[in-house]
Write the structure tokens for this entry.
Amino acid sequence: MKGIAASFLLVPLLLTGCVVPYGGADAATTATAAADGYARLDEAGIAQIKASRSARLDMTSGQLTKESVGLENGTSQAPDVLMRDGVMELNIEGPHGSISATTDRLRLNGMNNRSEFSEVTYFLTAESLEDFTALIRDGVDRYGIPRESAERWIESMSSRPEDEGDFALGPGTSTGLDVSYDLRYDGAKDVQVIIVHVSPA
């Protein structure tokens, strides 16, 4: 009976795309990582992100380790998560608050000799200067991005909305992480982009 019970316990893990390795300690670690609700960036984990259209990352310690997303320390880059048919809900839990966004692309940067990622990057988009401005002010309110420099940029571009204007804002530190907004505005284009960089404070 014990053998039958054990086999039933394995079924939910296999259905979630979690690969259960051999060995007691490793198996326990993998099961915990899969069950805690945080995203994994191995092949099965990326498939799960795309299916659920959501990703949650744990940076409550002030950094994001490769182990926490199911990757080995020797992995130089995690694969980008690109939603080709929609968007995902992204949540990054920091030491003093959360960063949340609706985005179609998630990228993690880190050298292969480090156990943690140096930066998490995602993209915000807007179809008008008004919506673009609203995204900037939202970042000011939620993450502590410097208000004065944000308003100066908004005032400048509002007087010449047909022009181009690239500018880096931040960092905001209210979540215990550095959150910077890389503004990429071009009045001749239909879609405007903010590249958001999240890194240890």
Remarks:
- Confidence is low (pLDDT under 50) at residues 1-35.
- Helices lie at 2-15, 24-35, 43-52, 129-143, 147-158.
- The longest helix spans residues 129-143.
